[in-house]
Amino acid sequence: xALSPRTAVADPAATAPVRPSRTPSxxxxxxxxxxxxxxxxxxxxxxxxxxxxxxxxxxxxxxxxTKDAGGLLAGNALSFEGFDLAGNLxxxxxxxxxxxxxxxxxxxxxxxxxxxxxxxxxxxxxxAFDKYRFPGKEKLFGAVLLGVLVPTTALALPLYLLxxxxxxxxxxxxxxxxxxxxxxGVYLARVFSAGYxxxxxxxxxxxxxxxxxxxxxxxxxxxxxPGLVTVFLFQFTAIWNNFFLxxxxxxxxxxxxxxxxxxxxxxxxxxxxxFYPLVVTGSLLAVLPLIIAFVTLQRHWKxxxxxxxVK
Length: 311
Description:
single chain
């Protein structure tokens, strides 16, 4: 008896293709539609307003420096009508036998020498805190961090009393010496030292017979150059804009920085309006060293800020 072959019947449910689930993923469920306030046009518009708000005082300063006293008091400072920049510069140079440029030289002395020495001292202190072990190291560094929290204006009176005891009031030293110490610069230098100077390079130099001072000067200082430039720029800006410390320490106008000298002229302008163009033109010239410093050293400054943010 022959057996007939069985006919296999396919199950439609078994042969149907498997479709992916339509259940939304967690990432897709967490997304929110981007609103119109976050569109590129809105962001760019907000940035443009911020730039205009930042640059407007500088634009006003450039145009106002070309006006005489009448043009400034007339309220038409944002136009170049009645351009007289050369006349303002000439009067600025002749006022008080050229005392403005003496103030300018004083500011360059205070800011240039003070920032350079402060940056070197801060980097040396930060290097020591990072690479050496000594008793009370972290407690001493905590005291440095506490110094960051103290505003500089609160230290003006104690510094004046110390300067009075040592007999340096109304001298260059009374303004130059206090700016040589910057607690924030020491903290920043320690961060840069930890990120830029490998311990292996220092050990190799010591094995070769180099002393600790030679190791720091030839290896450590060169490796931490971006941090040195960053501290220098911060301190240069702070000293150049410093006003309260010279106001407390100095009474001789020949020792004034630009900030204090322009303040004195601004007080005279209430009774004699001819000082208004001098104050505005002097303020415009006072911005130039800061711009030159940042443009010249911006490559090192940007690298230093990037490393500091990562660390």
